[in-house]
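Q: What structure does this chain adopt?
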Amino acid sequence: MKPAFDISTENMDSALLKPCTLLLELNERQLTCAWVNKNNHQLLRLKQYHFELSDDDPATVLQDLVESDDHLQQEIREAVVIYNYGDTNLLPDPYFTIEVSKPLAELVTGNAHKGLVLSEKIFGREMYSIYRIPREIHTLLQRKFSAGKYWHFYSLLLYSTAESKTVDATYFRLYFYPDKFVVAVFNGNEPQLLQSYYYQVPEDVSYYLLNICKQFSIEPATVQLYLSGLIDADSALYSEVYRYFLNIDWDTSGTTAWKNDKLTDYPAHYFSPLLQMALCV
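A:
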C-alpha cells in the first residue's frame, strides 16, 4: 500500500529517527504516522495511508502495512498510538469506576460489534474517556510497539484545548477524515459536545452541523468554526458548509508548532490535528 502523503526532511537516515517519538493515529479508514523530535520541535517524517472500504479484515491490512513499511521498522525513542474510533463516551470524574466502562459502552453503542473497552483520565478535565476498539488491532500494535502509550483522540483533543483562550462564546472545532468528521462544540472553554459523524455527500455534513445548532439554540450564521484535516477551500464540501456558516477559520496551530520545510507544500491545516496532539504526549 502506497501512502497518500509522504513528507520527510532532506537526507533523512535511521540515526535521525532514533531519538524521535512516533505517533500513530488510527481510525477505520486512515493511518497517519508522524516522527517528531520533541527536543528541537522538528517533524522528521509524516506518512498517511488511506484504507479502502472493501477491506474486509482491517487487522490483516494493518499488519501487512506495518510489516512492509521500512520506516516503521526503525528504532525510535517511544511510540504513541492514538485511536480515533467513534465508539467513545465521556463520563464525569465523580461517576467513573472501572466496572462501569463496559456496561456504559454497550448501553450507548450496543454490543453488536465486539471489541476491547478501554478508559483513561483526561488531563486538564474532570472527566474520563471510555472507548471500544477492535481487540485484534490493539493486540497487533501492542506486539509491534511493546512499550507504546495508548490514547484516544478525544482525550488528547480535550487535553490540548484545556488551556485555550478564546473570545468566542460558542465555537465548533471540526476535524475531517475520509468519509468522517469529528465535531467538538465548546462554550467558552467548556466542552458541550464531542462526536464523530460519517458522511457520503457534503450535504450530510451541513445537516449534522445544522442539527447540532438546533439542539443548542445556536445561530449558524454567527457561530465560529475552526476547520482542520482533509478539507480544501475550493472543495464542494467547504462550499456546502459555507452556505450556512459564515465565520470559518483554518486551524493550523499544530502544523506551525513543528519545523519541516516540506510542510509548506501542503495546506497547513491538513495535518494540524495530529501535530497538535504531538505537543501533549
